[in-house]
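Q: Two folds, back to back.
A: First:
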Amino acid sequence: MTILEHPLIADRLTSLRNKDSSSQEFRSFLHNIATLMVAEVTADLETTVQGVETPIEETEGRRLSMPVVLVPILRAGLALAEGFLTAIPEAKVAHIGIRRNHATLKPEVYYPNPPVDFANSNTIVLDPMLATGGTAIETIRILKEQGAKRLIFACVIAAPEGLHALQSAHPDLPINVAAVDRCLDENGYICPGLGDAGDRSFGTA
């Protein structure tokens, strides 16, 4: 697991937590945090050497060995995806809809992602919050079944319980998080957290 300790991310995260931030402000802060996360999240992607001719002479450059596929978990992952697309505009986006049943706290798939060549791609799963870990665990399982081998998970805030569950279920998975909060409450919400990221992003709270 990598905790992205950066002063700009910390600054935006404080504003993101603020209960008085409007939906527009919340989306803007989340977009900004996502863009700032990209460099660290993608730091280990493989590249290959490619020749390029500058206006002066020929030289060697580097290209990504495989394309990037972003997998935002609906709804809240959409705002993160927009931030990642700012930095990686050529990335494909494969949405997946998994919600947590508030009674059982178990994940329920309601929108399966479209078929994508995950086997020959760098796949980055995006969700602002990692609470119980159930949704992320199920998403990674589904993607592995579809051939994904180069998987990365990126979130803004995580609970220790969710991190432990995700690492136990998928020990090979690189996890990038901006902050690890104190705990989950009795309802499965992250404390201190930031509320429901989907509701706050889209004004449905």
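A: Second:
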Amino acid sequence: MRNELVTNNVRFANLLIDTHSSKQESHSLLCDLHYHDEVELLAITEGELSFVVNGKHHICRKGDTVFCSPRIPHATYVTEGACAYTLVQFRPEHYLGDSNNTGKYFNRFVRNTEIPFLIINDSRLFSLIGTALEEYRAEEEAFELYIKGTVYAMIALLCRRGALTTQNSVYSPDIEKILPAIAYIEEHSASDLSLDEISSVQNLNPSYFCRLFKKASGAGFVEYLHFVRICKSEKLLAKSRKSILEIAYDVGFSSVSYYNRIFKRYKNCTPTEYRRAQYENR
């Protein structure tokens, strides 16, 4: 399984849009098992294809739009020998933002609970993808701004389906209570943070802080700390020449074996495989 590095082709809209068609034999592979950090939308414009998630084949036909969450391994197959689709890929954080200052890592962490995969038969969503493609091809004045507007409309429809979550809907009084802790974690994630230290930031009993943090985020403090460290290590793997051992220590892990294990839990590949994928896709 490969980690795909997505290169945006609509610069100011921060997304990739493209079309694909195939006249291969039935049941042949279109795209092998892979994953990426972007949301993926496939609008089936001709024929049908099989979208594979968790080893299960899901048949998608003309008029369907396939939604796939970030970091979900998936593959596609031809089912009847010919098909065509429009592909849209983007990172939700580029559009949903951080209007409540909850922290860029926390927003990504909370969104991990969204629906991993969905087949949507919605003419409005399908039409928006077609409109974005037309704008991309025509390249008229302010076409990138127009495309960005269509993506916001797509996101709104995906939110109504429960596939994505808007920033305001995940923000709650419980999250507000732990904002100082979130900020502290993001600033000091490379240090040896303990539960006692992080709970003292808010003058809370450690047990109460654990319950509050889990209620607000859906997971525990340690799990979130791991997530922040893994996110920070991604940039070092892609941009620096540091060894895996150096990166593990730089982001706060006490051993490279533990770092490898946690990284694979979140990214479905090892740090070495992730780094290789970044270079192969440049």
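Q: And?
A: The longest strand covers residues 74-90.
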